[in-house]
User: Fold this.
Amino acid sequence: MIQRGIATFTLDYGKCPKWLFDRMVELGREMMRVIVAEEGPEALVRRIGDPVWFQSLGTVLAFDWNASGLTTILTAALKEAIRGEERDLGVFICGGKGKTSRKTPEEIASWGMRMAFDPARTSLFAYNSRMAAKVDSALIQDGFQIYHHSFFFTKNGAWTVVQQGMNLENQSARRYHWHSSKPKDLIREPHSGISSQYTVSSVLNMTAEKSEKNRAMSTELVGQSFGTLMKDIALLRRHSSSLSRMISLGNSGGKQLTLLELEDREFVTHPVVEEDFSKSRYLEKVLSKVCDAHPDSYEKFVAMEGVGPKTIRALSLVSEVIYGAKPSYEDPARYSFAHGGKDATPYPVDTETYDQTIDTMKKYVEKTKISPIEKRKLVKKLVRSNT
Assistant:
């Protein structure tokens, strides 16, 4: 079963001082040793995949609850904390921020060779890492550009992805979590543990259950000939300007629009209004390549080299506007706080989750090899940050 969560935070630009980073490394090492000793490496990787738990860990070690820098610095600190102990702990961390994130496949391959993993398993790790990045950048078009990607895994096959995107327009960052010990489907993602300080009014979310018909139609479109597909693309290009005008009329006069096989419905707004359907040689090149390959599933289509947000969006709009297969435009991010608010905004506090998070973290802190005074400070900070 795949679990995913999304958390959104204010954008940080400051640099973590060396003394703070060193402290995070030391405490992080102790925490990870305790968790692996108590519950095993799979449990540690599973907990990293929980956005609430990950945020709590970062808060205990150093950061404010809503700081975007928590993601990048905490991941880097944990990676440094287990350096040289990966074999003993049975946990491996690859990737990171910026250029380091692009080295994730190389690092996974390197560990696969050093640990003599089954090549098939190593390849699967690399595939899951790459697909997680592509899904959250191309299938969830929320305006956040991915700039941090890290991949946690164990030798037994459990893995977690933690990645973060930034939106410069509203000065916020959004973090995406994945966890799966037995991945079955990387496309249809039921979201859980979703928290956010900022939501987007219209997000093309091709991972949603509501987008199933649109995914199926997109797959059918690329399964036909390139010439047939381009006829639909050309039709949409030709009618996009008139469609915009007709939508405007619909806004003012309540008229309904029927375009080819488009189902009857009243339009108020639609992404096609702002979409540029002028000729794009790159888009046509990608679509030609995809049609030649005839992918028999949406996942195989998405996994192909060159397929990105524009390709996904073009096929999604053809599927909706011409064939009536509407995707989801709802932002998968829902809530403003991990456990809810004391004033019941945006929803009442989930006391069970709240208490469980604190109790679990307190247990780990108590078993670390640090001074009693430091332990009390960490526990107080955890409780204060979660209230």
